[in-house]
Design a protein that fits this description.
- This protein is an alpha/beta fold.
- The strands form 6 sheets. The protein has a 7-stranded mixed β-sheet with strand order 9-8-11-10-12-13-14, with helices on both faces. Strands 24, 25, 26, 27, 28 and 29 form a 6-stranded antiparallel β-sheet that branches. A 5-stranded parallel β-sheet has the order 2-1-5-6-7, covered by helices on one side.
- Helix 21 (about 625-630) packs across helix 23.
- The radius of gyration is 32 Å and the shape is flat.
């Protein structure tokens, strides 16, 4: 196993353990860990510590942690919170360098002082901490339970499967494990990280994905501090052919100050997480049903990159509902080939249906050879990528035969299979348990089955992440004012090869007239001040000026309005700008997400972004091909691509701007937000140009 030399190995596979606060009552919370360890057959050294007892679970119990005869790989600490610091100090003295702290009463109470104290002690003593306020971990690969969770209470040790589950919530993590186990999900690791004073969910994920037997990494996350580390783990898992699925809790926008740029207002927390999931091929889980469904399918070995499903059913109604569920998720239920259809007709009654879904009727259960024939035919059809068998109330000997045939087929075929069996426990629990025991994904919900299959398909069709080269440039932003005007912002963009409008910054009427003569009417006139972010609202923008007389009038009015908002010394000047004609308005921007860093955005302008929120996001940087994919993802892409009588627009020029902005965002680390609105996208082959821009930099004070 590739995990053996990892720095967390002593925590996950300790050869010796100290249990601080061990109870002689092995059914109590503080006694369950030792009971589980003995039940699982842990063969390492165990030192229980509790001043109340001389013996715990048949083992000598030490009255004080300082009395244990030797350092152990790990310490499990389940004592009152105020006693934990002194226990950690003794661990450091004894040379114990890994600890799992079950105890609550730390930062989760709102007072972080006690937690900071144990962090300081751990750092000084070179101790790695899991927790506090966690329920520990379960390593089924090595049959080591380091948890007090009731999920292990009086159950037979489960066989090790292929799923690692990392949860920031202890109760949710082990409850999901228990429920999932009951539904046939085969776990290999379960880890809960609690308050994450030291070791966090991402670091634990980095450990478990090094196990070559892991096929799926599932995570319950409430938040992460360093998005880049999370993305590195996701990418490493991808390289190891391990799927990653995340249930992200608290997806609503965080309570931060309202974003000042238009783009940032549309790229809240939930939108960024969703974009990250899509870009990195991460499966988004929504509830326990997804944990069960995805866990069953990905814990098995068959994978697919096709979305065509065959449905075999003993109930015409069940087949229709299953087909609808797949269709809702844009999965295909295609017609069989003529050959396959003919073969199926040989094995089903005349009143059955050989189309897809196949209505085999209940009579098929009385002839196992016929069911086998239909199932094998569907699996052998080259246009079918997966098979769903939807069974009704097949009971008794017939149900047993169906279960055995499904297990045989599942073990013999490389194509994914799933079973939806509509049956109650009294009549069908035995069959369901047999299927689960053999690893066959089995559901009692059509929707749950369809969502899991869709996740399998999406993962199989995931695109490889492109490798990126960020052009090595020195930061240019430092040479600009602390508050950039539109003129400054576009000068910055031009330095990164983003096309901008022709324009001149003028100080007075005479310079404005010269600029207008150079550009030619019509022109736009805008007042420039770094303190006026939204120029239209301040009434310092006049468009489509067609004469010198109009220009004179506009300049006087804008100057008057400028002085309502800023003092004379805060006025940079007046921007005389060409009017761009024939372009379609789009928006390009970025924001620096507090977790993931620079996120780039593109959308159609006007109502599409204002009302419909039609915007596409990616983690920066992106190359031009990825940027084009972002544009094609827009609901309104047809307006750019020439559908419905629209003119073809230069989407390649727009993609280039998106890519350049993403590069800029990575180089300029003090850039907080960038909003280019509008970008005029011209007819195909004529380019695109930034007509207005807003730059907000970090407060460097």
């Amino acid at each position: 196993m590739n995990c053996q030399n990892h720095h967390l190995s002593p925590l996950f596979t300790p050869r010796s353990i100290t249990i601080v606060g061990a109870s002689a009552d092995l059914d109590s919370l503080t006694g369950r860990t030792l009971k589980a360890m003995q039940h699982f057959g842990y063969s390492g050294t165990v030192y229980p510590v509790n001043p109340k007892y001389d013996q715990v679970g048949g083992l000598q119990c030490y009255h004080d942690l300082s009395e244990i005869p030797a350092a152990t790989d790990a310490a499990l600490i389940g004592i009152k919170a105020h006693l934990v610091p002194s226990a950690l100090e003794i661990c450091a003295e004894k040379g114990i360098h890994h600890a799992i702290i079950y105890s609550s009463g730390f930062a989760e109470t709102g007072d972080g002082s006690l937690q900071q104290r144990i962090i300081d002690i751990a750092r000084e003593g070179k101790i790695r901490i899991l927790g506090p306020n966690c329920q520990g971990l379960l390593n089924l690969a090595a049959r080591i339970p380091l948890t007090f969770s009731g999920a292990l209470y009086n159950i037979e040790p489960p066989a090790a499967g292929h799923i690692a589950f990392i949860s920031q919530s202890g109760a949710f993590g082990f409850s999901s494990f228990g429920v999932g186990l009951n539904h046939g999900v085969r776990y290999r690791y379960v880890v809960t990280t609690g308050n994450q004073a030291d070791i966090d969910a991402v670091e634990c994920a980095g450990y478990v994905i090094r196990d070559p037997e892991v096929r799926l990494l599932m995570m319950y996350l409430e938040g992460i501090d360093e998005g880049e580390r999370f993305l590195q783990v996701a990418q490493e898992a991808r390289e190891r052919n391990i799927a990653v699925a995340v249930l992200k809790a608290g997806r609503s926008p965080s309570a931060q100050k309202a974003a000042r740029s238009h783009t940032a207002a549309l790229t809240g927390d939930e939108a960024v997480w969703k974009a990250i999931f899509e870009q990195y091929g991460i499966i988004q889980l929504e509830d326990i049903d997804d944990i069960i469904g995805v866990g069953q399918l990905f814990g098995a070995s068959p994978r697919t990159n096709g979305s065509s499903a065959a449905i075999l059913t003993t109930s015409g109604g069940a087949g229709i509902v299953m087909a609808d569920s797949l269709n809702d998720l844009k999965m295909s239920v295609p017609e069989f080939s003529v050959t396959s259809k003919k073969r199926i007709e040989e094995a089903i009654p005349d009143f059955g249906a050989s189309r897809n879904p196949v209505d085999m009727t209940v009579q098929i259960s009385e002839k196992p050879e016929n069911f086998r024939h239909v199932l094998d035919t569907a699996l052998e059809d080259p246009d079918i990528h997966m098979v769903v068998t939807a069974l009704s109330m097949i009971v008794g000997e017939a149900g047993q035969v169906m279960a055995e045939e499904l297990i045989r087929s599942y073990q013999d075929t490389p194509k994914p299979q799933a079973v939806v069996w509509m049956i109650d426990d009294e009549h069908g629990k035995k069959f369901i348990e047999q299927l689960k025991g053999a690893g066959v994904p089995v559901f009692q919900s059509f929707r749950q089955c369809a969502r899991a299959l869709k996740a399998l398909v999406n993962w199989g069709q995931r695109r490889e992440l492109a490798s990126h080269k960020i052009e090595q440039k020195s930061s240019l932003l430092s040479s600009f004012p602390s508050q950039l005007t539109e003129y400054d912002a576009k000068r910055l963009l031009a330095r990164y090869d983003v096309p901008v409008t022709r324009e001149y910054l003028c100080r007075d009427m005479e310079e404005s007239f010269d600029a207008a003569e150079e550009l030619g009417f019509p022109i736009a006139l805008k007042g420039m001040s770094g303190e006026i972010l939204h120029k239209t609202e301040a009434e310092v923008v006049h468009l489509d000026i067609r004469s010198f007389e109009e220009l004179r009038h506009s300049l006087k009015k804008i100057r008057k309005n400028m002085k309502k908002h800023v003092s004379e010394e805060k006025i940079q000047g007046y921007l005389v700008q060409e009017m761009v004609k024939g372009g379609m308005e789009c928006i390009v921007g970025m924001k620096r997400d507090p977790i993931f860093g620079p996120v780039v955005a593109v959308g159609l302008g006007g109502i599409y972004v204002e009302v419909l929120g039609d915007i596409s996001l990616r983690h920066a940087p992106v190359n031009e091909e990825e940027a084009l994919g972002m544009i094609q993802d827009l609901k309104g892409f047809g307006f750019l691509s020439g559908s419905r009588g629209q003119r073809h627009r230069d989407v390649y020029a727009l993609a280039k701007i998106v890519s350049q902005v993403s590069q800029l965002a990575c180089v300029e680390e003090n850039l907080l937000e960038l909003d280019i609105n509008p970008v005029f996208v011209m007819p195909e082959g004529e380019g695109a140009v930034a007509a207005d821009a807003l730059v907000i930099r970090k407060n460097e004070n």
